[in-house]
Amino acid sequence: MQFKNKKIVITGASPDFGLTLSILFAELGAELYLSARTLEKAKATAAQVVEVVPDARVSAFQVDVTRPNEIAQFAEGVAALTDKVDILVNNASLWLSGSLLEVSEDHIVETINSTATGSILMTRKFLPLLQRSDTPDILFINSTASLENNPHSLANEAFSAAKAAQSTFADRLRYRLAGQGVRVISIYPPNFDNPSPLDEAKWFETRSHTEHMHLSARNVFECIQFALSQDRICSIDKIVLSNNNLLANGSHV
Q1: What H or E segment, with its residue span, contains residue 164?
Q2: How far apart are CA 75 and CA 122, in angstroms?
Q3: Which of 3, 111, 112, 169 has the maximum number of C-beta atoms within 10 A of its C-beta?
Q4: InterPro entries, per this entry (predicted)?
Q5: Letter string b/e over residues 93-116, b meaning 16 or more CB atoms within 10 A of that residue's CB
Q6: Alpha-carbon distance 91 to 225, whole Å?
Q7: What is the mean predicted confidence (pLDDT) over 142-157?
Q8: Count of CB atoms within 10 A of residue 29's CB?
């Protein structure tokens, strides 16, 4: 298996794209360390992974990424189980839609803290474990909402700003770690559907540019797998996905 025995930390591993990532990496032979805002959600994801891959090695942790002490405890908990981490997937983020005046100030602060500050502190705490790996990768699940001149019809301005901060952090970190063997990869998907990878018909559905549909989680994961599978001399720093289906008004689905 391509990722056999790789030790992968996945944040935001609650039922959604985090669950999809967890199932797919487990099927590829990885050992998983999963976090979610509540322990119940993390354990639910772990249980579904084991149901699909009975011999999967999965550990679940409760982590609110807006709380630095919980991020530190997560890293300490993983360090107690393994001496290294091969891949850190910064997937945790608080989605926020609507206009600036439609959302509360608390939601704005939480969005910034979970998406930007949370991923920065998560990376900081896990970097020592990553540096012990022969194949360390840091992966950020970003969004086209963070990109200049790429308007996102649903995202709140605060969400876009948080994702832009995360993107800038990844760029600066990549420069800082140049020559140390640590790859820093950012994936920028637009809106995408998240069919279960266990539903083969929906997972492998072919979507045409003539249909008013979103991209699929399969499209996103195939890009992730491609980037992580390159020879170590090759770092695919960024992958920006777009929906090749424009509506009459020129906007993406």
Answers
A1: helix 157-176
A2: 8
A3: 111
A4: NAD(P)-bd_dom_sf (IPR036291), SDR_fam (IPR002347)
A5: bbebeeeeeebeeebbebbbbbbb
A6: 15
A7: 83
A8: 16
